[in-house]
Here is the input.
Amino acid sequence: MLNKIDDNFSVRLVCRNCRDEIPNIIEDFSSGDLVCGDCGLVLGDRIIDTRSEWRTFADSEGDDPSRVGNSANPFLDGDQLDTVIARGNNDAGLSKHLNRTQGRAKDQQHQSALIHGYQEITALCGAFDISKSIVDIAKQLYKKVTDENLQRGRSNDAVIAVCIFQACRQSGAPRTFKEICALTK
Here is the structure.
C-alpha cells in the first residue's frame, strides 16, 4: 500500500505494484480487505463496512428498518442492554412476580432515579435557555452526587438546583442562586 499526497493535500491510496495514477481499488467488505482490482494485491485488511445495514428483525413480515436499540447514555452506568420482563396474562402470575422482583433490584432503582434527575435537569435548563454543555455538566455533577450518596436527607429539587448552579459557574455563565431557586419552585 502506498499513500500519495496530491497538490490539494488529500491522501490517495495507490497500489505499490501497479502505481497507476487512477487506481482500481475494490473494497471487499465480506472479507474486510482493500484489493487492487488490476493485480489482486491486498492493500489493506480489517476494513469496516460503515454503510447502513437495513435488515428486518421484526417478528412479523412488516417493514421494520430499525437497526439497533437506543443510543448509549454516557451518564448512566453499565452498557444499558437491560432486559425488561413483561407481565403476561396466561402464566399464573409468574411473569408478574418476575417483573416485580426485577423492579426491586437496587441497580434498576438507582438508574431510574438518575434518569428522573436527568429529565428534571433537562426540563429546568430548557425553561431557562441554558446551553446543552451546561446541562451535561449539571448531569455529571448530579451523577457524582448520587453515586457518592451525598443527597441523602436533602430535597432532590435542592440537589438539582445546586448542580445547575455549579455547572453554570464552572462554565463561566453564572446565574444567581435566586434565579436557579426560582426554576425549581
Q: What stands out?
A: The chain has a mean pLDDT of 77.
